[in-house]
Amino acid sequence: MKSVYFDHAATTPVDPRVLAQMLPYFCERYGNPSEIHRLGREARTAVEVARAQVAAGLGAGEKEIVFTAGGTEADNLALIGYLQRFEPGHFIISAIEHPAVMEPARALNRLGWAVDFIPVDGDGVIDVGAYEQAFRDDTRLASVMYANNVVGTIQPIAELARIAHEKGAAFHTDAVQAVGSVPIDVGALGVDMLSLSGHKIYGPKGIGALYVKRGTRLTPMLHGGGHERRLRSGTENVPGIVGLGAALELAQAEMSTVGPRLEALRDHLARGVLESVPDVRYLGHPTARLPGNVSFTVRYIEGESMLLQLDTHGFMVSSGSACASGSLEPSHVILALGLGAEEAHGSLRLSLGRENTEAEADAFIQVFPPIVEKLRQMSPLYVKG
Amino acid sequence: MYTDLVMDHFSNPRNVGEIEDADGVGQIGNPVCGDVMRISIDVEDDRIADVKFKTFGCGAAVATSSMVTEMVKGKTLAEAAEISNKAVAEALGGLPPNKMHCSNLAADALHLAIQDYLTRAGREAEVPLILAALPKGHEHSSP
User: Fold this and answer.
1) For chain B, which domains are there?
2) Which of A250, A268, A290 is the last residue of a domain?
3) Inter-chain CB proximity B16 and A345 less than 8 Å
4) What is the pLDDT of residues A283-307, one digit of tens each?
5) What confidence score (pLDDT) does residue A330 get?
6) Does some domain include residue A336?
7) B87 touches chain A (CB under 8 A)
8) Which of these three, A183, A216, A250, is where a domain ends?
9) pLDDT, tens digit, 9 for 90 and up, residues A68-114
10) Among A75, A169, A228, A327, which lies 20 to 30 A Cα-Cα from A375?
11) CA distance A229 to A292
């Protein structure tokens, strides 16, 4: 059985061209970048080349890039590292943030910070009016994700950053899902901090970065030898950093060809599913969404059972149902769109990547309707209309 | 995460459907929680002559429903009443810990079907005798 991977929002394979650039830094050029001998200098050069690649990919300065162990650490550093410099006050996040923002926000809340969770509309776009009104005199930071990992909706980041600055607060965006998929220029966006991750863009796992605009002061979370301009101590993950730089450079170079192709594939897949299966609701914004995200709910059946049936047919996808997430609650993102829990349990996400083909999309459209029909025949909630 | 037996029952579920004019029907769960199981039985000479299920839920919910129908066919009502959710999970070779609560209610649905049969047959008095272990988790009862 041929397998088809439609779960690129979870993680991507490492591109062989990226791996090739990383490999020398394991066994040959293994030096510690902090050492001044030849091996150390080689490693330092590699780290700084990668930093320049990442900076170029974001339109940032090289000194504005801090390497971290991934997107989660970047988000934690942004929220906790920024807010720790103040007496507890108030900050703002959206209701659909990834747990990597949601949980540090809750941790800060337990430390005495007040936090507002700004709702989104049915398409997953933040309520800009409610956002603007949420700012208080002691609001220090707003953090809104660039693109949502579940439904793919892209937020009006430049507008949100501008409002935050007008209100005297800093602005952070978790751009883990967006970087490498859509063009990003931190200058045009006006953000103060932006998080990204290597393994979402055909780079390795265990590496990410935080863009920190010059003049934005953070308190480090990891204390030690003072690496990364004192913001993130710990010997640099040189192969990972090299991989992140190479992956972002590749993604930037191929974006103009890959992006439109993925959008066409996405819309083809969405249309195919909506036309062949009744009682399906497409989730997320129709156009302001990630090029590779197809997200929908199927009435009367549950997401994990769809996911497992698709798996037995070779298709790897993701679901926001409670069972699939391992909790008892369906995805907070889908509930935030205004869907009931029953419908949220039937959610499915297909996230496409650059190696996916139209033949794979067509194969999915063939396989999926009978799976839905089989599960609906099994469902006590289903009454054939 | 799932045993091969769970995947087998999930992929090829036994006794799917609904018995027309069933002698007893039991339903448990709540779509809000993501699991609803309905079991219908036909009873002859106090034995379960036929049993079918319909389930809305995850892989574990489908597999436990399928398994309980296999375990109970031909059993006396008293024997069927002794089958617990835990026994169903064990018969499947175990379930992941997070599936033991909401997705493992098939035996409860069966017990409700037996209760329904006894009530309809005018044998309410026997319900507590046969069904010492009726589900107590009322938060899962369907409206």
Assistant:
1) 4-135 (3.90.1010.10)
2) A250
3) no
4) 999 999 999 999 999 999 999 999 9
5) 84
6) yes
7) no
8) A250
9) 999 999 999 999 999 999 999 999 999 999 999 999 999 999 999 99
10) A327
11) 35
Determine whether the interchain pair A330/B13 forms a contact, defined as Cβ–Cβ distance below 8 Å.
no
A300-328: average pLDDT: 86
Structure tokens at A208: 């990410």
ipTM metric = 0.89
Contacts A340 to B, Cβ<8 Å: 32
Q: Which residues of B touch A329 (CB under 8 A)?
A: none
Residue A15 confidence (pLDDT): 98
Q: Give the residue numbers spanning the domain of A36.
A: 16-250
End-to-end CA distance of chain A: 35
Cβ B32–A300 below 8 Å, yes or no? no
Q: How far apart are alpha carbons B98 and A82 in whole angstroms?
A: 36
Hey, is the C-beta of B62 within 8 angstroms of any chain A C-beta? yes
Q: How far apart are CA B113 and CA B136, in angstroms?
A: 15
Beta strands in A246-382 (DSSP E): 280-282, 293-298, 315-316, 347-351
Helix or strand (DSSP H, E) at A304: helix A303-312
State the sign of the Cα–Cα–Cα–Cα dihedral B90, B93, B99, B104: negative
Say which of A221, A288, A323, A365 is annotated catalytic. A323
Active site residue A27: no
